[in-house]
């Protein structure tokens, strides 16, 4: 491994982190100006290793390297490697970009060693995984894999612009894309990602493999009561939507605390009319509910909705639910994960398999092709935070695993 490969990767992650829509913090949301600049910067690094780049109709950055051997060119199987380039608000610099930039440096290493791959490779920088702008995640990988539906295009952002309107260019209205590849042409999808949790750190391991990705449901719950004067409306006569929502927030927390590994999060509260001396008439809260087992997640959702109804009737409120995302739990490909685990053992001697509580593009890509994920330790398990950190030493281990994996896969699929 060239000694400065991990430093190069770390430097590029730092450079990409400066590309943001919000000064002094990392925020890149779907189709934003910063996303276009990020695509241009990463495309330059892709071109340096011979990847031919393009941007698809959903804003995904795709870098393709053809197979080397003449026979393979007849029917080029393709290996997909990637992750997302969009971020949450005030994000860290690893969540997403690590899985796009690491494969580029790994390909540079193979090139340095004079190793040509007997299959094509596509490095993918998905345009939208976090679901920040439209509250609906995975629009990028759904587009690439032909799973984007008309219902996905209806979600609206804070400026009331729909996904369809955001995707339409002055050239032509947006048409739902077909899958970028036929399943039979693909070897699989590999995503390298920080763990975003504490397990690898506790186990003193730099990397691990992922056995499964938890299912998740996201949506918006709106309580409606009656706005009124904060000074003259007696407490007993109020229909306070925020007080009702607050009860639900605490119920969600206590339900999840009592039934691990369920997790439930209210990340946003929108209060209207939103004045200190007005009783809130309408409140919309975001709800994010996850569990490795789908049946348990559904049971939890049913309990949350039943309790929301109970709160509403006790407070003479109404409550409505609008789902914006619903993904079942996904098992990673056993053969691909076993091969990845061999590479992990070759580099760090022990390979641990973890369940991912975070969602990833691999969830969506699993409908198109078998998926495997490599997790990289992150300090304190912290993510979705500017202090997110993976050490150059751990980046070096992850790079070694990625290069070893590509070489093993090449031996498995000789030209
Ligand atoms: O929210 C998630 O699970 C991921 O970071 N998009
Ligand atoms: Mn994330
Ligand atoms: Mn991510």
**Spatial gap, N to C terminus:** 24 Å
- Poorly predicted regions are none
Top-tier CATH class of the largest domain:
Alpha Beta
Q: By CATH's scheme, which homologous superfamily of the largest domain applies?
A: Zn peptidases
Structural class by helix and strand composition: alpha+beta
Task: Give a list of the ligands.
Answer: (2S)-amino(hydroxy)ethanoic acid, manganese (II) ion
Q: What name is given to the CATH topology of the largest domain?
A: Aminopeptidase
Q: What percentage of residues falls in helices of 4 or more residues?
A: 25-40%
How many domains, in number, for the residues?
Answer: 2
Question: What series of H and E elements makes up the topology?
Answer: HHEEHEHEHHEHEEEHEEEEHEEHEHEH
Largest sheet: 9 strands, mixed
Brief sketch in words of this structure:
This protein is α+β, with helices and mostly antiparallel strands. The protein has helices at 5-17, 33-48, 70-74, 97-112, 139-144, 163-167, 199-203, 241-258, 294-314, 334-348, 361-365, 392-412, and strands at 52-55, 61-65, 78-84, 120-126, 186-194, 207-213, 215-224, 228-229, 263-265, 269-272, 278-279, 282-291, 318-327, 330-331, 353-356, 371-376.
